[in-house]
Amino acid sequence: MKKMMFFVVSVLAAVLLAAPSATAESAPAGPVCISEALWLYGPNGTAMCTGAAIPSINPAFTAVSESNGSQNAWCLYSQPNYLRLVARIPAFSRADAWVTVASARPC
């Protein structure tokens, strides 16, 4: 049973590593997403708003420096608070992905 579980986890990890990753960019102003939030763009043109000004941690997404008023970059606290949530990418697909985020402060 343990060998089978290890095999399944290994295959799942290989599939996730082989999948193209999205890039995080600063969000355009819009009625659904706050302006400081990060947008995650997929390789086929789909996009997902994180809904909060919190950068993701690799994996599965990489946070980038964003313009937020007078602040231009994000720094992590020395003791960040991590949060895991399920995201569907693209939004209406059946594929779920775990996204890990951490509390951050402006530099």
UniProtKB/TrEMBL annotation:
The keyword Signal applies. The keyword Signal applies. Keywords: Signal. Residues 1-24 form the signal peptide. This is Peptidase inhibitor family I36. It comes from Amycolatopsis tolypomycina.
